[in-house]
Structures are given as structure tokens and as C-alpha cells.
Amino acid sequence: MKKLSGKLNKYSIAVFISGKGSNLKSITKNSLKKKASYKVKLVLSNNKKAKGILYAKKQNIKNYTFDFTKSKKLGIKVLKILKRNNIKLVCLAGFMKILPEYFIKLFNGKIINIHPSLLPKYKGLNTHKRVINNNEKYTGCTVHYVNKSLDAGKIILQKKVRITKKDTIRSIKKKVIKIEHEIYPLAIEKVLINP
User: Fold this and answer.
1) Is residue 181 among the annotated active site residues?
2) CATH, domain 2-193, list 3.90.550.10, 1.20.1250.20, 3.30.70.100, 3.40.50.170
3) For residue 24, with 0-12 CB atoms within 10 Å meaning exposed, 13-18 middle and 19 or more buried, which class applies?
4) Is the CB of residue 192 less than 8 Å from the CB of residue 11?
5) CA-CA distances (angstroms) from residue 106 to 62, 102, 110, 117?
6) Which own/partner contact pairs does 181-185 have at CB distance under 8 Å and 24+ positions apart?
7) How buried is 120 (Cβ within 10 angstroms: 0-12 exposed, 13-18 middle, 19+ buried)?
């Protein structure tokens, strides 16, 4: 974060979503704090009906909807939008598409993701169901860098929660989302302040 004429100049980030955007809300809320090193400049979604897009509109955040993973032409268009807006970091927050390898390579900033398990355990989908089926005592969430392999990038931050005998897929999901909202803004700060 640089100082420009006595004012803090915050880094611009983009958040990619597919649904409700609950992590988008916690990231945006954190960005409004005085000490935050970033601002949410763009929200992109692959889903026109994503509730997170409505939230972005209410917050006056520039937003776009693209199914750009299908077409390299659209992917390049998205990269141009990121470049034009001087985006330093892309945050995947419930983004249910796998970014193409060319996109990861061509975006010359950093891309991070939040995953609802303690990686490297339970990569991919249906994490809470698998955690219960395997009688795990703990689960949690992980913020990691995105690379060409699914949920395999270097870990930035993790937090765990205890699983009780009474827990269901739904109750575990609630517990994990709560800690996701805590650690994602912290991970963003960590990545931007210690590049």
C-alpha cells in the first residue's frame, strides 16, 4: 500500500463468484476499514442469476457476467478488463468454474481461492459429506494460491473447526462458512502486504 498525497492508496482486487457471494460480503466489509490494504474494484460471475451480483450493484462495485471458461476469446476479454482496472489480486469466492491454464498464466498478478476443507485433504466437491463419511474429528477451510491443478496451490491460511457427533452436512457447512468469512480477508491482506 503506497501513500499518495497523505492518503492511503489501496490495491484493487477482483472477486469471482457463482452464487450468493457471502465471502464477497465479508471481503467488501473488511475493505471499508481504514487500515484495509485493498478495495473491491470488480466482481465477475459466470452466473447471471448470482445473488452476489445484486450485492455488487447495491455497493456500486463494477460487475460483469461471463462464461469465459468456455471461450479463449472471452477469457482474453476478461484479462483486458482486469488489466484496465489495475487488478493486483483475483479472489475466487465460491466460483464454481475451473480457470483455464492460459488464463492463470496470462494474468500477471496473483489468483487465490478459498476451499471448504483442510487441504490437501478433500479437494474438489462434496467436502462436508466426505468429512462426515470418514468420521473426521476436525474440518475447516483453506485459502490457497491457484495453479493449474485443482485445489493444489501453496497454502496461505487455514483454520479448523471441531466436528461433534451431532453435526450434519448442514451444520458443518455453517461452521465452515463462518470461519471462511474470518480468514479470507486476513489472507488477502497477507498476500498484498507480503507479496
Assistant:
1) no
2) 3.40.50.170
3) buried
4) yes
5) 22, 6, 11, 28
6) 181/22, 181/23, 181/25, 181/26, 182/26, 183/114, 183/141, 183/143, 183/157, 183/158, 183/159, 184/23, 184/26, 184/27, 184/91, 184/93, 184/114, 184/143, 185/26, 185/27, 185/29, 185/30, 185/31, 185/36
7) exposed
Q: Any bridge partners for residue 12, and if so which?
A: 39, 87
Grid cell 455453517 in the structure block, residue = 174
d(CA 139, CA 12): 32
For every one of its 195 residues, what pLDDT tens digit does the chain have, with 9 covering 90 and above?
444 333 468 999 999 999 999 999 999 999 999 999 999 999 999 999 999 999 999 999 999 998 766 688 888 999 999 999 999 999 999 999 889 889 999 998 899 999 999 999 999 999 999 999 999 999 999 999 999 898 999 999 999 999 999 999 999 999 999 999 999 999 999 999 875
Residues 78 and 72: their CA atoms lie apart, in Å, by 10
Catalytic residue (one of 115, 128, 144, 181): 115
